[in-house]
# Entry
Amino acid sequence: MKHFATLALAGLATLATAQNTTNGTDYATGLLAALQAANLTTLLSVATQNAATLLPVLQSGNHTVFAPTDAAFAQLDNATLSDNAQVLNLVSYHLTSGSWPVSRLNGNHTILTSALNATGLVNLPGGQGQKVVLTGTNTSAVVHQPTTNITSTASVTYQNLVIHVVPTVLTIPQNLTATAATAGLSALTGALQQYAPAAVGALTAAKGITVFAPLNAAFEGAASLIGTLNATQITNVLNNHVLNGTVAYSTLITNGENATTASGESISFLKNSNGTFVVSGNITARVVQADVLVENGVVHVIDQILANTGANPGAAASAASSYASVAATQTNVATGTGSPTASGSGGGASASASTRSSAKALEVNSAGGILAGLLALGAAVLV
# Structure
């Protein structure tokens, strides 16, 4: 171990000196010591291996690092650990902007921006880095992933870094189909795969999406209504579950705000002590799980199907124009904190309604195919 530590220090220190950074060698030496003191030897190894990429980022500005334990890294397969490109992507996802010690956290969602924006893994507007959803308790930071919460076991600081030690390696958000399967939205997954496979690409390729995904149980209550709809109406219903081309994290949703869906219809948001609600037509659905991250956006799980059959192509076109201008100036701006995760609601920093307008309506046949399959599957399974 002493020999390894010496080699790691030499690598970091040499790089820092070569870059002519102020006190670069001291910074590298201190960082090494901090990782060693926290028994993060595997992280130290992979960080040293990628020092040329990571050290300049770490030294610039304040950062919050989620540091997996040696045992956490040991859970990864050898193929992943031996592929340095994969390792670098993983480590980049654990490195986020801003200083977020436990003392700044509470039960509200905070959406952090990571250093990961690799093509093929992230497809967010404006070239933004992938996000991390964070809350906190009195003693720990808590990372929210689609099916589990990861609670830090210790937290340390080093100069400009807040380091939260975590017992599990964070999972990089996957595409919509994979996430739906992982999150237990089996009706959605089954419909996409069985009834509308061609439409999967339209959703996963979009640069920025927000999906309001109904629970499996929501199909039971809507089955009788769905049987009365024609293909065009079903298409409209699907589009009213999607904001295409924009990502509305819960922290960007404010009470009473409106957004324009991919069908051109307006949806609105209500927030109170009972939670956050999405209103579409005469249907009000409660958000039961907010900020489920996907490769190109976010999913909010809701308890009802938004069976609004309305459509307004003119509004959709206007929204597309409005969002195009917003997307051109999007950056990695921090979203601040949201509202209690128990209610799945959002809050904090807000954006204009046009920011969450749909950039364009999804292609009609593909979109209709998704929901037709989705609802048909729900009716077949649950009725």
